Amino acid sequence: MKKYETLLLEQDEHVLTVVLNRPEAGNALNTLMLTEVVDLLATLYVDPQGVRCVVLTGAGDRIFCAGGDLKERKGMTDEAWRRQHALTEQMMRHFQELPIPVIAAVNGAAYGGGCELAVAVDFAYAADTARFALTEVTLGIIPGAGGTQNLPRACGVRRAKEIILTGLPFSAQDALEWGVVNKVCSPAGLLPEAQATARRIAGNAPVAVQQARKSITMATQSDLATGYRFELEAYYRTIPTQDRLEGVLAFNEKRKPVFQGR
Hints:
Shape: globular
Low-confidence stretches: none
Strand content: 15-25%
Helix content: 40-55%
Distance between the termini: 22 Å
Order of helices and strands: EEHEEHHEEHEEHHEHEHHHH
Mean pLDDT: 93
Number of strands: 10
Largest sheet: 6 strands, mixed
Strand order of the largest sheet: 1-2-3-5-7-10
CATH architecture of the largest domain: Alpha-Beta Complex
CATH superfamily of the largest domain: 2-enoyl-CoA Hydratase, Chain A, domain 1
CATH topology of the largest domain: 2-enoyl-CoA Hydratase, Chain A, domain 1
């Protein structure tokens, strides 16, 4: 796994922990960090290098991600802003297309693009000290990293409208009750909890996990009949795999299966 300036990577067998590493700037997404996240996701798409699940978190214990780097954006021309935002668009499309599940471990404030990251990934855990907000309308813009699309899918349209149109922050407990996060943990227990779940996912048959993830995503993008047709296509992709044979054999032999991802 290559080295990055704004990201810290730690791979433990099949789980890759990615740390947004600009604590002095609230782990804000500047041009370099966006470029590096895009590069990492593109690399994993082409060659997962044994990674079966990703945990995304922020450096420090106060801020997960403060969103776009507004200091860098001060005085930015329209064209320069557009070019930078194209990186954000690439990042979000990579999260949509990456065949590897991603869990966010929200260790602190997740504002603007940070909140959008938390709802763009497959699901999120949060420290009980975390705070969330989509503040874009208070700055004269709107969410542009999938927030108007992913947040309603997480918490419902009416709640998403309240969050986005007011720009007001909400707590980790609110996020749990509204479906924005799946679990609230102590700050010390957050990353171990997320990594334990990632290891559980990584221990399952990789092809089956990928196909199930694709099929679940289709549930919000199509009618029931079309979604079920997609599910069947995804299901039959798993039938000829060695992992399917191994799973059934291990069950009958009362042992833990050893999946190879093929």
